[in-house]
Amino acid sequence: MAGPITAGVDGTDESLAALDWAAREALRRDLPLRILQAWRFQPHERLEAADAATQAGWVGDALTEVAEGVRARYPALDVRADAREGESADTLIEAAAEAELLVLGSRGHGPVVGFLLGSVGQRVIAEAGRPVVLVRAGDRATGEAAGREIVVGQQGEPDDSVDALRFAFRAAAARGATVRAVRAWSLPPVFAYSPASLKLLDEAGGLEPYESRALADALRPCREEFPDVPVVEHVELGSAGQVLLSVAARAQLMVVGRRARRTAVGARVGSVAHGVLHHAECPVAVVPHG
């Protein structure tokens, strides 16, 4: 059974834009919307009533007002509001596990602080077990107009991108949109050629036909599952991040897979997802592999 669409809010313009996007997505998928506010008690000597219970009441009142606004704009939507005390990243990652997808606000160009401040957004993206969608503060429903595509990156073997592709096809089916599946390729160094690889390339008729065939093979299961979704197969020489960003202007949603890795300074997402999150103007869905 599918979980809700969960939107994390903190009162910023970014999180409110993400909330509106999440509400529209919940309506399209006929799922409930869960509005989540993570908060922590902040003692302050100048506040007359600084105890935790009072602060919890303030958070609850503000969240109720936000939820009532969503219900007024989307009366057919099942809206639930939840204020949860705890560390922001841990709370959001926990909430993502119960959701169909998690939607957060993004502050736009520059380091991806994503939701709230510091490394919270990056940690949530890297560790959440469900897809995370990042929405800019200026996002408007007009970006979902007819003709705007769902752009998804595909790389490697078919299994490497299956989750991102399926997410993109589901999003397109819910919107009546076209999927543009992008596979970028580059010329391998001379020492990378081997007799076996040369044979494969020769059978395919060259490098670009080989890449086109690889993309078609990866798309086949989703084409069968979603036969009514139009598909554009886009194969282009260049780095994956650059090629995806070159078609971002026509996208209402960009979908990328995520290969998270741990470093001495914390979790990091792959370079392609990192670049798209920095520079794409449309909402970006980051889908974990496996």
From TrEMBL:
InterPro entries (UniProt xref): Rossmann-like_a/b/a_fold, Universal_stress_UspA, UspA
Pfam families per record: Usp (PF00582)
Domain UspA intervals: 3-136, 149-288
Family of the protein in this entry: Belongs to the universal stress protein A family.
PANTHER family attached to this UniProt entry: ADENINE NUCLEOTIDE ALPHA HYDROLASES-LIKE SUPERFAMILY PROTEIN
Protein name: Universal stress protein
Species for this entry: Streptomyces griseoviridis
Lineage of producing organism: Bacteria, Bacillati, Actinomycetota, Actinomycetes, Kitasatosporales
